[in-house]
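Our working data are protein records whose layout never changes between entries. Instead of coordinates, the fold is spelled out as a row of discrete tokens. Here is such a record, shown just as it appears in the course material:
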Amino acid sequence: MPRDPETSLKKADDYRATLHHSALAHIEDASVSAFRTPPSGYETHHVSWVVSVGSRRIFHGGDTLWHGSWWRIARQHAPFDVAFLPINGASFSWQKPASDAPAVLTPEQAMDAATILRAKTIVPIHFGVRGEEGYQEVEDPVGRLRRAEKSEGPKVRVLQPGEWLDPLPL
């Protein structure tokens, strides 16, 4: 299911404008920043979001992979209360020739990214998909993320579908 990079970027820009103008329009002292990384091996940019409301700040990594922009994002925006990061380490066989290299963060890479971002909490996203043709995620992604957790650094908080992270950890 290859995507057209320009269409994806346009959709991300449209989404940002919609999010900024509707969802945050009534909140004082709120901002949304989007970061696009250079194209990956799948020829797509990855878009990540920084949402700040008052003194609270979250990072949402979408379907991102390991990249060199973590330090730049941290310099500009860290620390974060929460980092929502994918942990599925997915590989996709529909790209030819197929590769076992992950196209999305592995659990360990997600923990490293959250550490660089100086996040207090990491909430894993984009895992547990089964039965999709051409999609393979790593085994036991949540267990691997928990094993990557260190006494100093981001704490893992797994949310159930529909569950809110409220209040944000201080």
The chain has a mean pLDDT of 81. The longest strand covers residues 30-36. Strands lie at 30-36, 47-53, 56-60, 80-86, 91-92, 119-125, 135-136, 155-156. Residues 158 and 164 are 11 Å apart (CA to CA).
